[in-house]
Amino acid sequence: MAELDVHTTPLPPGMRRTDARYRRAVVAMLTAGLATFNAVYATQALLPALVDEFHVSPDRAALTVSVTTGLLAISIVPASILSERFGRGRVLIVSALCATLLSLALPWAPSLEVLIGLRTLQGVAVAGVPAVAMAWLSEELDPSDVGAAMGIYVAGTTVGGLSGRLIPSGLMEFLDWRWAMFGSSCIAVACALLTVLFLPTQRRFRPKSINPRHEFWATASHVRNPRLLVLFLSAFLGMGAFVSLYNFVSFRMMHEFGLSEGLIGLVFLMYLTGTWSSARVSRVVERFSRGRVMAGSAVLMLLSLLLLFPTHLATTLLAMALFTAAFFAIHSIASGWVGVLATSHRAEGSSMYLFCYYAGSSIVGWLSGCVFAAVEWRGLVLWLLLLAALLCGAAALALRAEQRDARRALA
């Protein structure tokens, strides 16, 4: 890829944890995750209310989640390409503002079709943040501090996803679903404005000309890398299973356990286990290696699903806590691992990982809706067990490749 200018001056050093700009960057990425993932999952906790409001089936209401993540997946690669020319920070800020401002229109949709249409636009708008956030961190931070910052960003996405579910469901104890969603949207807009305020100007970015053919082959080169392909597969399977569980657990909470909308919203506090695990997994990786921790987390995801079979609220909550912590540990490891393995065309590598991540959310989430409609809760759990078993296989392949590299290094 030809650069617009020939840069002869060396790049400035990456930001370290002791730098004030590093702290500003971490705050900006945290609020960007809060803003955008609040927007992405704005309707998930409200699916039962949408079913009642528009007189549709649960799988059709779930399209308000699937279309957003589907368009997000499709738009990630173009957003990443644009960031090569116009800068990661600019794309991130425009994306965060557009996506959250669109959230303000969602509560006033007169029909489910209009709501789905707005959510489609929101999927396109929101893509810029996940498309460039990881590349921004990888470029601007010292390599030794990227893992910790990446974990904080992922933690921000978990809290954002939590707020997008918890705030509207809590407000529904006092308001109807429209005003509840509006209140949540206002908080997302405020977080986006904080991102604009805190995000430091990039100093290590060098703009490049956009060559569609080159970008295509750069992305394809990552798909031909077996080690990266395993990480892409883990993103597809893991995110698909995760979103599927959270899409439909609300219906079980309401129909089998008799919980109100507000109490169902508290169930999404299980997200905090993901916030905790993603922020701390880098320390465990330093001790045991990426492959071992990823494989162990995949096994934990699989085992936790077995606790969803009994009709007991306590075991269901425990299953969700373990499942969520394990999933976000895998995501934090895999997303950072892509940046390590993709030594060239790093932005394209990250965008391909995220394409698979959100394609899993959309495609597997939609398929899970069909499964839930056909065979209800226990059939859905069996389907999730299949996905988790495949994820364990992908994690085992990643571990095997890591161990093979370690043996070669010692030889």
UniProtKB/TrEMBL annotation:
It is a multi-pass membrane protein. Gene3D superfamilies: MFS general substrate transporter like domains (1.20.1250.20). Pfam families: MFS_1 (PF07690). CDD domains: MFS_NepI_like (cd17324). The chain crosses the membrane at residues 25-41, 61-79, 91-110, 116-137, 149-167, 179-199, 228-251, 263-281, 293-311, 317-342, 354-374, 380-399. InterPro entries: MFS (IPR011701), MFS_dom (IPR020846), MFS_trans_sf (IPR036259). Residues 24-404 form the Major facilitator superfamily (MFS) profile domain. One of its GO terms (cellular component) is plasma membrane. Keywords: Cell membrane, Membrane, Transmembrane, Transmembrane helix, Transport. One of its GO terms (molecular function) is transmembrane transporter activity. It is found in: Cell membrane. Belongs to the major facilitator superfamily. This is MFS transporter. It comes from Corynebacterium uropygiale. The lineage of its organism: Bacteria, Bacillati, Actinomycetota, Actinomycetes, Mycobacteriales.
